[in-house]
Amino acid sequence: MRAVTIRDEELVVEEHPDPVPGKGEVLVRVRAAGLNGADMHQRRGLYPAPPGWPQDIPGMELAGEVAALGEGVERFAEGDRVMAIIGGGAQAELAVAHERLFMPVPEPLDWPAAGGLAEVFVTAHDALFTQAGLGPGDRLLVHGGAGGVGTAAIQLARATGARVTATVRREELRDAVSQLGAEVIAPEGFAEHGPFDLILELVGAGNLPENLASLATDGRIAVIGVGAGAKGELNMLALMGKRARVFGSTMRLRPLEDKALLARRLEQQVLPLFDSGELRVPIAATFPLEQAAAAYERFEAGGKLGKIVLVVQ
Amino acid sequence: MRAVTIRDEELVVEEHPDPVPGKGEVLVRVRAAGLNGADMHQRRGLYPAPPGWPQDIPGMELAGEVAALGEGVERFAEGDRVMAIIGGGAQAELAVAHERLFMPVPEPLDWPAAGGLAEVFVTAHDALFTQAGLGPGDRLLVHGGAGGVGTAAIQLARATGARVTATVRREELRDAVSQLGAEVIAPEGFAEHGPFDLILELVGAGNLPENLASLATDGRIAVIGVGAGAKGELNMLALMGKRARVFGSTMRLRPLEDKALLARRLEQQVLPLFDSGELRVPIAATFPLEQAAAAYERFEAGGKLGKIVLVVQ
Questions:
Q1: What number of other Cβ atoms are within 10 A of residue B158's Cβ?
Q2: What is the pLDDT of residues A17-43, one digit of tens each?
Q3: C-beta separation of A148 from A200 below 8 A
Q4: Do A247 and B237 touch (CB under 8 A)?
Q5: Which residue among A31, A77, A147, A296 sits deepest, i.e. has the most Cβ atoms within 10 Å of its Cβ?
Q6: What is the pTM of this model?
Q7: CA dist., res. B77 & res. B264, Å (int)
Q8: Cβ neighbours of B240 in A, within 8 Å
Q9: Distance in angstroms (rounded) separating the CA atoms of residues B174 and B171
Q10: Which chain A residue has the Cα nearest residue B239?
C-alpha cells in the first residue's frame, strides 16, 4: 500500500507492506483521513505515536470501507462504511485497528466529512459534556471557533441548548462561524462578553488570566489546544473564589478502552444528529494522499473554516 | 451577648444584642468556635462575610447547645448538641442560623473538638471525595499536612483506603502527622515521592509547576489554601498531556443550599467515623472567648498541629 511517510520531518508518499488484521481487528480501505494539530507536532518529531501503532505513518482519524476481518470480528462486515480515531497510520491506503474503535458512518456523510469527523467531534463532545458537564442554558465561550474542534464544539453546544460565544481571529471567517449558531466576536476584549460557565480554550495559554476573570462561579476552563503558547499565569485565589476548574485533555494518548468508550458515546449521543442533518462537518479543503505535504502546509497556514482532509482514490 | 468584634483590624470582645431565631432558624448557645484562615483575612478587611450574616463578628464554625427554636424548626430540640458551618458570627456567646446547616455532635466529642470539626472536615471531604473522587488505592499528596484541613484530609483519605503522603515544614510536627496515617516528608523535593493521583494544595501557588510534574495521568490538583502565594505558572501542555485537572474551592461564599447539602453529606459519610473513634479533631490550643486576639496571634504564628479553638464558658 502507499502511505504518507515521515522522513526527517519531510512528508513523502511511499510504498509500505499491507497491514494484516489480527484477532478482533478490521482492515479498512481508507477513503479519507483528516489532518489534526497533533500531526503537525508528530512531523517535527515532537509527538510520537503511542506504542503499537505505525511510527512513521501519520494520521489519527480515517473513514473507509471494511476490506477484511480478523478472527472473531462481530461488529462489521466487508464493505461497511466505517470511521475511527486510531493511534496512528491513518494517512494511508489501508489501515488496521480493533473493531471496537470503529463507528458506522452516518448515511448522509460523504467520505471527506466522515474522514474529518471523529477526532474533532469526539474531542469536543468529551470536553464539553463528559468532562465539563455542559447543559442547556449554560454560557459557553469557544476560543478559536473557526477550526475543526471549534466548529464541532459550537454545533454540539447549540444542539444541547447552550448559549455559545466564539472568538474568531480572521474577520473573513466570522460570518460562516456565526451560521453554526455562535455569537462571534473578535479575540480582543472577549471578557466583556462574559460571564461564561465554560470556556473551551483552543488557542493558547495567554488567554488564561482573562479566561479566569470572565468565568462565572463554578465555571470551568477546558484546555484542548495551546498552539499560541503553552504557559500562562494562574491566580489560584481567583480559582478558589470562583470554585473554578481548569482541565486539559488529549485523545491520542488514551488507552484502547478509553478510545472505544468514546466511540460508543459518539454513536449514542452524536451520530444521530448527523443522520438528521442537524450537525455537519465543515471541510475547508481536500487534498489527494499524494499531496500530503501541501495539505499540511495548508493546515499550518491557519485561517480556515473546518477541516483539511486527505482523500484516497 | 458578648462577641468577638472587629474594630479597625483589632479584635475586641463587646456586648451585642442577642440574636433572635426567625422562621426555620435555631438559636445556639455557643460553647466552642474554631478559627480558620478566612478569619485572618476578614480581620484585615480582605474577606467580608457574605450578605445576611454579621459583618463585624467573625467566626465560620461553632458547636453549642440549642437555646431556642424559631417557627417550624423540626430537626432539633432545646438542649441538643449541634455544630455547623455558618456565614459569620460564630465567635460569640450566641449565634443563629437555619436548622438545615446544623449537624448533631457525635457523642465522643468534647466541645473544642466539635467546635473545630465542621469547617476543616467539610472542606477536606468536599475537595477529596465530592470534587476529586478520591478512591481506595489512590495516591494522595497533602501539602501542609499539619494544619486543620491537612489533618482532616489525611484521616479521611486513610479511612477510605487511599495511600497518603504529606509535606510538613516543621520537623517537630512530623511525628504527630505520621501518626494520623501519612508518610510525612519535607516540602523540598516532594516530587520525587510521586506520582500522585491527587494533590491537595494547602500552602501556595509556588508548588504548582512541581505539582503538575509529579501528577499521574488523569491526576487532579485541589487548591484550598494559598497563604504562601496565590499566583503560579501553569503549563497547559503538561496539563493536556496528563489530562489533569486543577480546581479551587472555598466554603464560605457558597449559598445556603450548598452548605446544607455539605452538612448532610458529612452526617452521612463522616460523622459515624467520629462515633466509632476512627477520626478525631487534633486541637493545637484553646483560648477563652475574651482572649480572641491572642488566639488569632497563635493561629498566624503557624507551626501548630490541628485547630485553634475559642471556648465560651
A1: 17
A2: 999 999 999 999 999 999 999 899 899
A3: no
A4: no
A5: A147
A6: 0.89
A7: 18
A8: 223-224, 226, 248-250
A9: 5
A10: A248
Contact A48/B at CB under 8 A: no
Residue matched to cell numbers 505513518: A57
Distance from CA of B166 to the nearest CA of A (A): 20
A233 interaction partners in chain B (CB closer than 8 Å)? 231-234
- Length of chain A as a residue count: 313
* Residues of chain A positioned with their CB less than 8 A from the CB of B243: 247-250, 254
∠ at Cα A198 (A180, A201), nearest 5°? 75
Mean pLDDT across the stretch A135-150?
A: 96
The set of cell numbers assigned to A270 is 452524536
A&B contacts, CB < 8 Å? 107
Grid cell digits, residue A222: 477546558
Of A226, A238, A244, the CB nearest to B237: A226
Nearest-CA distance from A226 to chain B in Å? 7
Domains of chain A: 2-117+252-311 (3.90.180.10), 120-248 (3.90.180.10)
pLDDT at A12: 97
DSSP string, B198-237: EEEE-S-GGGHHHHHHTEEEEEEEEE---TT-SEEEEEHH
E-strand spans in A168-282?
183-185, 196-201, 215-223, 231-235, 245-248
In degrees, rounded to 5, the angle at the alpha carbon of residue B300 between the alpha carbons of residues B297 and B301 is 85
pLDDT for position A53: 94
Q: Does B224 touch chain A (CB under 8 A)?
A: yes
ipTM over 0.90: no
* Closest chain A residue to the Cα of B253, Cα to Cα: A241
DSSP A179: T
Cβ B174 vs Cβ B299: under 8 Å: no
Kindly give the parts of chain B with pLDDT less than 70. none
Confidence of residue A255 (pLDDT cuts 50, 70, 90): confident
Is residue B135 within 8 A of residue B61, CB to CB? The reply is no
Amino acid letter at A135?
A: G
The three-state secondary structure class of A38 is: helix
Chain A, nearest residue to B231 by Cα: A235
